[in-house]
Amino acid sequence: MDLRIGHGYDVHALEEGLPLWLGGVKIEHEKGCVAHSDGDVVIHALCDALLGALALGDIGKLFPDNDMAYKGIDSKILLRRVCDVVAERGYAISNVDCTIAMQRPKLRPHIDTMRETMASVMGVDVDRVSVKATTTERMGFEGREEGVSTHAVALLIKHE
Ligand code: MG
Description:
The protein contains five helices and seven strands; from the N terminus they run ββββαααβαβαβ. The protein is of the alpha+beta class. The model has no long low-confidence stretch (mean pLDDT 96). The radius of gyration is 15 Å and the shape is globular. The N and C termini lie close together (5 Å). It has one domain: CATH 3.30.1330.50. Helix 1 packs parallel to helix 3. Strand 5, helix 4 and strand 6 form a beta-alpha-beta unit.
């Protein structure tokens, strides 16, 4: 049995009037992420964790942000493609865990929808997908509501 662990981290700036996508879910808020894609910082961190486990670089390498093909793209499509790469290499997703740092809005009401959405995109049971959220007690860029960040870890398994 071969086990692989990966870590991902992503940050996006927040700006008034943009849609806010987190974990594949659109959340009502007056600010959204500035990005070439839909700016889903949770899915981006998760993709980097999955790619990191296989030492395949990051999503910027797979989906360059100067490529117009990815302009405004739904990040769920990127996650699906990353999962295809994982499967092609013979690995299955054991579990993933994401922590979102954001001051506002309260994310708890959206957590289970994010878990269900990302689990369905990855084709795994929802109990293998953890999403947590924290404020940063008003400190730093997240605390000042200038941006949002996410850490993610992923464990991959291959039966030999
Ligand atoms: Mg990103």
